[in-house]
Design brief:
Length: 412
């Protein structure tokens, strides 16, 4: 009965997330995509790369209130990306890059050495990265047809401002849920999965995705990006070259109620929420500490080898810079890229034939990566709703209508 009850709750959470997202426009719905540049894929998501599947397990328990470690409030989860779908045991060529290393992504030692990504990629909160790593391995070794060992890739960002992060609420069953419910098609964004409790550029952040499709004369390849967005200061937010963060100054995160101020409040310059107010004015006389991270997953169907995928992964940095990130000391900015081309070659036991795109033709993929990264971050912000969590910390969602208003003011 307990299992049925947990499944029912999970279905309600997924349905609620889906309904919330359906009501909120994405960047392309607001006309932002053309301003960023490039041609988005049909879904404008990482799943535009054929075979890629994404799954989430979202854990939301307890009303906002004082932190009780081990009890809540809980605002966290797991996101899984399968490069070739969960039914495939065919690895892909891959590579990773760290812009600033105050974070974790497991499995990268062998990824760098061998250039091969085996199994899914997991993303969660900082204190749960080990559970997710082990959960992936438990699923892998227990699934017929998959290899009975592995060095899983699991990455993290910090959600402790809204979530009881050291209550260790992510369990192996949540990892399995995200793995086994993953699918192609439209991807849930915002406060879902690993992104549930994340804060990005001062607004509610989380999971975001976007894609770019190259024209036939450039190969017709697709690049898809998925981010777990949890970095940056609000005043630095740029959208399509416009300083949106400098124009929206009345939605700063704040603390509701009369609880004592925390170290997190002080570091982020967070003030008390005005009573009965729909917003909170930002104090720009205070320079908040830039705390947070971003994990990015880049998928492409272009035939790239590991050293070329490393070059793709580095270009994520430029997309982050375009929205106002600067890889502060406290930020874990870690990216992974893979190619679904050249099936059945990565683990060949003898000599094999494969296709490689020439370096002379790779630059359009760099541009596509930058554009898709920028838009994926914006989509994460637009999808996420206002959330209140640990110690009544309130983080506001970015209102799409306000963004459009600012863009028009700047004649964009």
């Amino acid at each position: 009965m307990r299992g049925l009850w947990r499944a029912a709750i999970a279905l309600v959470l997924v349905a609620s997330a889906s309904q919330a997202q359906a009501a909120k426009p994405r960047a392309r719905d607001l006309g932002i995509t053309p301003l960023i540049g490039g041609n988005a894929g049909v879904l404008d998501a990482i799943t535009d790369v054929a075979g890629v599947e994404v799954g989430h397990s979202t854990i939301i328990r307890g009303a906002a209130g004082p932190l009780v470690v081990g009890v809540g409030p809980v605002r966290t989860g797991v996101t899984i990306v399968h490069p070739r779908g969960r039914a495939s045991n065919d690895p892909v060529f891959g590579a990773w890059f760290t812009l600033n290393g105050n974070g974790e992504m497991t499995g990268t030692t062998w990824l760098q050495e061998g250039g091969i990504l085996e199994g899914p990629i997991g993303i969660t909160n900082t204190s749960s990265v080990g559970v997710v790593r082990d959960g992936i391995l438990q699923w892998q070794v227990g699934t017929p047809g998959l290899q009975p060992w592995g060095l899983p890739v699991a990455a993290e960002t910090y959600d402790g401002s809204l979530n009881d992060i050291n209550g260790f609420h992510v369990k192996p069953e949540h990892v399995r849920e995200a793995i086994t419910t993953a699918r192609g098609g439209a991807v849930l964004e915002g406060a879902v999965g690993g992104g549930t409790g994340m804060i990005c550029l001062g607004f509610k952040g989380g999971i975001g995705t976007a894609s770019r499709k190259l024209p036939p004369e450039q190969g017709g390849y697709t690049v898809g990006v998925l981010v777990q967005c949890n970095f940056g200061n609000q005043r630095n937010l740029m959208i399509a070259g416009v300083p949106v963060g400098q124009e929206i100054t009345d939605l700063a995160s704040c603390t509701a109620g009369d609880l004592p101020r925390t170290a997190d409040d002080e570091a982020r310059g967070r003030r008390r929420c005005p009573p009965g107010s729909a917003g909170s004015p930002r104090d720009d006389s205070v320079e908040p500490t830039e705390l947070g991270s971003i994990i990015a997953v880049v998928a492409t169907d272009a035939p790239l080898l590991p050293h070329q995928l490393k070059r793709i992964a580095t270009r994520v940095s430029l997309g982050i810079g375009r929205v106002g990130g600067f890889a502060s000391n406290g930020s874990g900015d870690i990216f992974i890229a893979f190619s679904t081309a050249n099936p059945n070659t990565a683990m060949a036991t003898d000599s094999t034939r494969l296709t490689m795109l020439s370096n002379a033709s790779i630059s359009p993929l760099f541009t596509a990566t930058v554009q898709a990264t920028e838009e994926a971050i914006i989509n994460a912000l637009l999808a996420a709703e206002t959330m209140e969590g640990v110690n009544h910390t309130r983080v506001y969602g970015l209102p799409g209508a306000r963004v459009v208003e600012v863009l028009r003011r700047y004649r964009r």
